[in-house]
């Protein structure tokens, strides 16, 4: 199986065996290609090279692609703000034309959820929610063992559930989205707010305000910095409140946290769990486990995309 | 097929043909029976009488039961606050013992969703959300053509999504649930709040405050009463904001409103639609239709429960 992770900067692709071992990988610069066709030429040439060096096309059953704003139903990338090519890009079709291998595409958070279900913490689970905490907040929802795509292929945008009335402006143009608080950039915004509104000393005051990242907040928090710890509490509380609502929707067996912030361990997991417990409806108490992803960040995108390939049952329409 | 609607006051049951025509119905007083066994005796005797009068047991493929706090996986009613029998009641098993017909049970909102999918506004839809606006707010969620039950059988409690931080106390003991605002009792609470906090004249001031019902608010609103119309606007706005968030979860083809409040027509549909449009993420704009149920209230519960019977594929485990 081939997995392709389309990122704003790099596109990483690799060959993955049935046990989830990455056999070989390579990458190209996503932004270096003016048209989607030239980009597809370059990525597919790279993939073909890997395939030829590792047993040939007969052994490759499918290509799975994870991409921002990816639409599973059409195999298209639609209006992705962080990519150069505008409008609707039929990327799965462009790959199939070049590789003559069935190709499927979904958004990156869905790919991560499939990776987790196939190789990670959600193995054997039929109902779980994957929350990806990165530059943005994404989600992949699995119900009855199936990814939820909805009527249009775009279901599972939990980063854009509004959690605060008239709250922070979000990149989507609305106010109060979960993403505006619980993404890496949301954490940095919280840091700037807290440093302005409070007088206590903080290690974070040594960094120019506009340059503070979520990593800086983490570094300060593990040194016991009070404001940094409160930033994690604040972030985790908002996330936990939102998760308690999501549980009322699909009553999942587990919620899996993935991405940068999820590596903060207890700093984030404790306030999230506390807020879930404080806000959850009685009948759901203690049911959904809160788990960290078991996929390595560096591998997860390619693994997840490749796992999508296992979903190929018939030629993509 | 037999449909059974277990209500706090009455239990209505009926025989339904494959086209959704109710052939015969009868009812018993739910609260008149001290034990669940005696209750099952009475209901099943009534069902057997209908069956015998309408072609005999061979023609009946299954019994579908809609009940508050119903758990599809176990066929049990679990800790229903409005029923006499406490704890976990294995109602489907009690019915099977007596009728020797496969019996399945789910909560009333899920039964309504199945009824809508089989006979109503959701025919042919694979992804929709049914919202039941009654004394409480319930929901049935259909994804990929399947009811969402989650890991425990209780998924789809959208009436208990928290929509207002530190909001109204809800019957569930928490604060700010959708149900505390958008149920019939929620509308009556809003009326009492508005009448206290505003000075304008209103037809509702002719009714003792504690006796105002959502029906009174409706009657006043269709006569153009300003406060009554504002109560509907307020209710619809909160519901529409919540629905915009639900759409980000499962991107449904339609959201179907069912029950008392849904009969208020434009009074409720207009503010709901307006709030959806104002709060929805761009990619979902204009996709999910907002529809009234096409099932008659008086028939819906029995029809929905009977339609559940069509889901029986193998003996209930």
Protein described:
The structure is a homodimer of 317-residue chains. By secondary structure, chain A is of the alpha/beta class. Chain A folds into two domains: 2-114 and 298-309, ATPase, nucleotide binding domain (Nucleotidyltransferase, domain 5, 2-Layer Sandwich), CATH 3.30.420; 125-294, Nucleotidyltransferase, domain 5, CATH 3.30.420. In chain A, 37% of the residues lie in helices and 19% in strands. In chain A, the strands form three sheets. In chain A, strands 3-2-1-4-8 form a five-stranded mixed sheet. In chain A, helix 1 packs across helix 2 (91-99) and helix 3 packs across helix 9 (297-309). The radius of gyration of chain A is 20 Å and the shape is globular. The mean pLDDT of chain A is 93. The A-B interface holds A 69, 78-79, 126-127, 141, 143-144, 146, 148-158, 160-162, 164-165, 172-174, 241, 244-246, 248-253, 279, 281-284, 287-288 and B 69, 78-79, 126-127, 141, 143-144, 146, 148-158, 160-162, 164-165, 172-174, 241, 244-246, 248-253, 279, 281-284, 287-288.
Present the secondary structure layout.
The structure is a homodimer of 317-residue chains.
Chain A lengths: L1 E5 L3 E7 L5 E8 L6 H18 L9 E5 L2 E2 L4 E3 L9 E2 L1 H9 L3 E5 H12 L8 E6 L3 E7 L2 E2 L31 H4 L1 H14 L16 H9 L3 H25 L3 E5 L7 H14 L9 E4 L4 H13 L8
Parallel strand pairs in A: 1-4, 4-8, 9-12, 12-13
Antiparallel strand pairs in A: 1-2, 2-3, 5-6, 6-7, 9-10, 10-11
Helix pairs in contact in A: 1-2, 3-9, 5-7, 6-7, 7-8
